[in-house]
Structures
1.
Amino acid sequence: EDLASFSLLFPPPLQAALFSHQHHLGKMVVGSGVGLFVDHKKGEIPELKALLRDSSVDKDPKQKRLVMERVVGYMTLGIDMSPLFTEMTMATATRDLVQKKMAYLYLSNYASLQADLALLVINTLQKDARDEDPMVRGLALRCLCSLHVNNLLEYIVEPVIKGLGDASPYVRKSAVMCVLRLRELDSQVIVERRLVEKVYSMLKDKDQQVLANSIHVLLALQGERGMQMMLSRAMVVALLQRLRELNEWGQCLVLRVVSHYKPSDDQAMFEIMNYLDERLRHSNGAVVLAAIRVFLRMTLDSGAIHYHVLERVRAPLITLMTGGSPETAFILLKHILLLAQRAPGVFEEEYAAFFVRVSDPPHVMDLKVRVLVQLASPSNYTAVLRELSSLVTSYDTELSRLSVEAIGRIGVRVPSAASAALDHLERMLARGAPVVCEHAVAVSVNLVRRYPQQAGPLLVHLPRAFEVVESDKARAALVWMLGQFGEAVAEAPYLLEELVEEWGGEMDVTVRGELLTACVKVAMKRPSEMQATLGRLLKVAVEDSSDVDLHDRALYYYRLITADAARAKEVVEAGMEGAFVGHFDDEETDRHREALFEDFGSLSVVYGQPAENWMLQSEIDAWKRVTDPNIDHSGVNTNPPRAPSPP
């Protein structure tokens, strides 16, 4: 993938940080001695045109560079420099590589706007593509394939094919990438000129960058079939032997190929994993994730070996996560969270590595708290709950909310931790801080639904909580608990009576619904104290037509109670018993996690969604599309190609 697609790895908070950093760099450039990004003045284009034509400037390479730097600088700022097209084309006639690079960059940008002069540009680049200097040939080939002009195909086919066999590795690696441009212009050329075979043969090239580019282009041309072409044992061994020569991007490409290879037996599998073990200690997170992907996919059906692999990759992941940048930590935490959901026991002993640090940005804190929830177990929940409880009083209200919710989820997930979690929530309610109380009340609902027999100490603080909470979600939770445990809270009828008086105000519809149900529940348990309150509420609710659902529900309760009070009590009590649950369904299904695990090491894990949920269908279909259907898995052309069309 190119750098543009790689940038998608970062979520919106990280993108904002990157843009801020980029803006800071821009200020540094503005203040540099070169003075490229100064205010553009009227009449400067004629001045630049005169300088580019000045023979004295041509004789001074440094001065000529400064002039061209100004042109490219204005171009990058979005200022129209197309009037200088002729002069910049003439500037390519130099032996100075720096000047050539800037001239080629300019031509690539403005060739489509100067249709009349485009042929002159192409002729110049074709001439440079035959230059004796390999750097010039490579640069000219890259620029030639970057042009967006009509009828470009007939001008670049021969230079590209010639470049594939060039003696210089720089030219060859550029030519390999230009094959993709040929496919974009006319895919039939790939078939007619047998370019898939040529690219496949370049997997044996001695230059490491040519090898990496060839793998990338072969996958882009042939998709899934291109992957199959490289999965023979001989090819996989050859790629692994050259792994250390490649840069990080090349290593990730090779490891991507190897991850699809199925060893013939356990001995071959262990040999590959032993060879790749050192990649787990690499300083680059992308290489480590690619190596882990190989280990996990190869041992997926091996049972105990797969679990041992998870234990083996634990240390490299934690080391990179704790010692890397926040961006790296975010991506690694996403993958650790996926593995922790798959096998919580693997990271259970390393829970302390995921404690939140003051220097962590908010998105990293969020993920660390989510990982701690997954790692909580009967052996470590005390320390985990203590750490989360310390974060509740944080100045960051979002972190406080996440910590309270995490305490509640741990209490639900780990039965032995329920009592401790309720104790922490009870202390939060006793503290009386409005924001903390709101979060604690909202979280307590699930705990008391799961463990109703342990709700007693928590109910003592409900009357005080009514005085401080303001959010609709927290008030609805309080009303639900009053209705469910009305017998245990002495003040329940009087608290509900106060809320009934507010019915005509700006009360949220959710709170109204819970209030109606809670009053009926308490009335069934304490009829003498609730009779008048319930009567007023039913009258108001039946007459209120602002919400049809509440109107119909109030009418149902009224008719049920007036028809048969004993039967009404049975119906209400049955509903109260149904509110308690033995377990809660997980937010993510096993099928969803397996889909993410299949895409381990990709953006799917970062987004938390399988590829089909965020990629365009055309991009997914491209992986299944085959440019040359005549190529089999061995890379041999099974059908003779058509004769090439005459130029």
2.
Amino acid sequence: LHLPPCTRAAAMASAVALIALSLLLPAQAFYLPGVAPRAFKDGEPVKMKVQTLVSTETPLQFDYYQLPFCQPRRVQDLPENLGEALAGEKAHTSAYKARVRVNEYCKVLCRKTYTPKQMEEFQDFAILDYRVNMRLDNLPVAEMINFAYEDKPDKTMQIYNLGFPVGGKLAPEDGSKKSAQSTDTYVLNNHLRFKIKYHPVDTGDGITTEGERGNYIVGYEVIPFSIKHTYYGKWNQSAVPYHPLTTCAGSPPNGRFERHQPQVIDPAEGGQVIWTYDIEWELSDVKWASRWDVYLQMTDDNIHWFSIVNSFVILIFLTGIVGLIMTRILRKDFARYNEVALTEEELAEANREMREETGWKLVYADVFRAPPFGRLLSVMTGSGLQLFIMTILTLMFATLGFLSPANRGALLSSVLVFFVLMGLPAGYMSARFSKMFKEDNHFQTALWTSTIFPGVCFAVFFVVNLVAWAKRSSTAVPFGTLVVLALLWFGVSLPLVFFGAFLGYKKDPISVPVQTNPIPRQIPPQLWYLQLPSSIVMGGLLSFGAVFVEMFFIISSIWQHRFYYMFGFLALVFIILVVTCAEITIVLCYLHLCAEDYRWWWRSYLTSGAVAFYMFLYGAYHYFTRTHPSAQFDALASSVFFGYLFIFCYAVFVCTGFVGFYSCFQFIVKIYSSIKID
């Protein structure tokens, strides 16, 4: 795919993007993601932060303190970057306290009495399998489980499940009389056992001196319990957090429990809950630089490789068709039209064919006729180039490790920064095609380029945000973040688009190899499979077939709140998608030109961009098959999911539409510049 002369401007913008990203993500020389290690001395207090409540049954997430959990005397909102704010990853201080390498058991967090309404709220969150997210020293808390492949049961690996459940359904064998009468009895996980893994700081000569130079935190695990705590006599608030409980064995507690009942959620009468937790420190061989490995390791890499091979098969098929067109059909056409190396018999046959001439040469005087809504097409092309370069830069930095999940919010922040800075090549491209289409209002073209795509995205985002505000979901973005987005849009992106358009309009119009007739040629009736709807269906389906497996993993990772870090696979899939879109558009464009239909401008854009329509349908299928029945038609859940899915698919449509349109344009320029026109 050859980019236009705006590559110099794009290179300048890319250099600016690199500088901006270096300021945004201060990298350490020894660790790409840019998070500096911190050593903790023995006995030093560490802060356990609480974040959000998320579920695999619904796309909605809520703030931790929207449920009546125990709170510290003063809840502090911890600073967040732009990416974290957009993702709704708000962090707060908590009442949990721990000291380095000090094991403590059965510490009382608080004792609270809940109303029936509050208990019902806990039950609703337990029914939807909501999980609590916390973090310590930038590590997310997780339940660790052993995973084994079916064909290799002896070979196990440790994988994680982020957070811990608010509660769960009471198992029949653990049930009381009440649970025997009702299958809808739920319990509350009111006791947490935190296992914090640490690795002593190395001295530099390979000798590890435990505790002398401090300790790195390399693991943060949790095991939830449901325990209906009991105690002797009256409750003594001054004894918290070391208030003695009869359900905890030993004095002081040793981590074992006496015989107890689970803490049942009673939405009819409410009740009292004592919240407790354990702190266990465990020495680990894991180095600090490898502490994220357990979160980022793959258990399904074979499926990814299968997806890549499947996509390559489609790609090879399309490449063969394009190669056939270029090497056989066009070569014969060029030879016939240019009368090169023809024998007398071949020349006589060619002359007879020329008298009844059909094919793509017949429409040479109309093939570069300006399309309807030419200004809009030039604007969409400019925005497509903007998204195309943004995607390349984001994937490049992500593949190199700069956008690791360890650097929270870095991925979304980088996407925004790159998109804003790529306004320069967007304005340049739209100006060049607008000038070619002889659109006279230059200001309107530049204004549309800077406002149509981001304006639609911002409008959808704002509507989703209004619904989230109304439902008090943590998905809602603060007003200050909206102001920052508006400043980036109007203060950075818009001026760059206008500057790029200024450079584009200073250039001469794009030259084409043939002249356009003032009177349009009549287009003969087209067969059904050459009509626009058929082209869109075929073009989008083939492109979607090349990427749907990777899309499944991306949606599943987002839905299950797991870290997606397979950017190498994603980069390969993106390259395959780009080449597939370009080739399928070229093939269909050639077929239409042979049928004497020269209306290729919008058709090439829509054919290539149709992959976004299939992505939207696949996302909708995923939503209705994964969402809990009680949340499928919830106004907030559906608006959040389909709102963000629409923004993503709209961006894919504009980006892939540009790829198809520009490759088709280069193909047509190439073939019509290679023949003699009488």
3.
Amino acid sequence: PRRVSEPRRGASRAGERKPPREGETMNSAAAAHARGARKTAVATARPLSSCPASASCTTLVGGGARRRGGQHVVLHPPRASSSYSASSSSSPKKAGKKKKTAAKKDAVAVTPRDFEQRQKSVKGCDVLVEALVREGVDVVFAYPGGASMEIHQALTRQEGKITNVLCRHEQGEVFAAEGYAKVTGKVGVCIATSGPGATNLVTGIADAMLDSVPMVAITGQVPRRMIGTDAFQETPTIEITRPITKHNYLVMDVKDIPRVVSEAFYLARSGRPGPVLIDIPKDVQQQMLNASEIDVSLDPSRFLEYYNERLPEPPRKGLLLDVARAIANAKKPMLYVGGGCVDASEELAEFVELTGIPVAQTLMGLGSFSEMHPLSLQMLGMHGTIYANYAIDNCDLLLAFGVRFDDRVTGKVKDFAPNASIVHIDIDAAEIGKNKAVDYSVCADMRESLKGLNKLFREKQVEMNAGAVQKWTDEVLEQKKLKAMSFPEYEDAIAPQHAIKVLEEVTEGNAVISTGVGQHQMWAAQWYRFAEPRRWLTSGGLGSMGYGLPAALGAAAAFKAAGEKVTVVDIDGDGSFLMNVQELAAIKAEELDVKVMVINNQHLGMVVQWEDRFYKANRAHTYLGLKDKEWHKSEEEVDIYPDFVKMSESYGIPARRVIHKAELRAAIEEMVNHEGPFLLDVMVPHIEHVLPMIPGGGGFKDTIADGDGSMFHEERPMKGL
């Protein structure tokens, strides 16, 4: 057994860091999947209530167990029922009309009272789906396979309660679950089969971990007796996902399913949100359970005593008073807000009105404070505005709210906010002081902390140095005028920034925007301004190409389920779009209203930009078109490769290409006003760079503010450039 160490990312990624209790150990479930293990003996984890709920914690539950050497060992897991009937009847031999009637009754029963009227036994897969219904799940993203088909059969019996959106790839479904979670604030749910199905979820699970997205991923697993035998489509899902989940479970007994599902949702959405994985062997899904044994009045917190102890307490008034006094004494205060403020946007707006402090937002924090507000300096960091980075560089007090001092924000850490005292408020104790030393720290929920601070200023228990702050604000706003964002205006060619700006104008800034990863992502963050939270879907921490289209799909599915009419636009790059282009099929089949605007420069644009700036413009496999037919040189439309218009039309989705600046606005209006999905392929110059730019490891003084690829190599320029 290994000693429980301090969690990798804080107290269950939420709460004060406490040392493990004396003598605590947690046995790895890895033996269940160890290569060469030919028995069904499984070393189990201690109950979750007695282990630190860390980001790398595992619970193996169920199975006939006995003690051996201080640990549980499952020697012979109970066999599943031999019945494979879809009916919940305990008499599998019954057939005909009676069997069909039972199946119909089973499909309707979902509430706790209905269990009293049910037949004697239900399958584990039905127990699982009913547990999802009790958690309020209305949409899941699931792709079937051998080890998960029982779950899909159960989903068909609950079609009135849960809709399954059939994405065309497991990576598509996990990104869609993220998109759903980001626009709703609820837990996203994805389901995959064992082996390659489970491993295809890994990138999205890691993405949700880094961006603090509440998610429950459910995977099928080979039958219990085959675990550890290198069976067909067997992978050690628990071991693979342990470092990238908030918690995970291997369910070995059907009786544990209701409790595990309840715990998983509680863990995913409490504290600092994150992904939780449930791995369920196929024979457990088929195992029969007496309806009277199903506990439907679960309180997950009663099983999670140690986890709850480590959740942060409400912010203490004394700590907030210290912070308020530091703010009142500052002459040049500055707000640096991130994803932790997304659900505290109203409180943040009130705080700004009470204090008059300028605001800069991280990539993940966009929309937490209206970018239309005069005190908004928009995004800071590597590709942030010059005036936002100027304010950070010159402030004397930095208020870091719901952030983690990511390297793409700080650059060279010692040069970040060099003249400032730092206040850090975050729900995850592990983030405080991790990358940057701070002077004041509060480990607490951001909304409650802002409420407390607002009360202090509203009741004038602390008063701002209004004259000094106004002088500072005037200085910063002057920089906002002097260093305003700009982009090149071409005679005929379309600047990518211009395309995004026109999209904002046509949608009046009210669209939900998703992106892939690359130049188009940064341009979207710079040029599409957000007035409210949960309108911006992007892969921030992991930077996963292929995120944009399925995330937009998930958002559209959420709005469709809620009966809301919201414009959802995926601003994508040609490289990112290709990585999950198959989800056009799901969008068409599910009748989801997703617009796709591809910023197409025929290259991996961000890598090209770095090649230009730091590798003497040497092209190293960053051109995505045909080698002998380069559109940027020939200017022949036939040389554009691949043809996204034909590709989209092959999926039954109308599409259009725009090359000339004069046609852009009409094309975007056509896309936005079209009923149903639509793809617009916008051709742009590949020489354009995302600016401003602070090179990796640099500081504010290293800012690059002008130039493009034409400075670094000789190519025949396009007409109109």
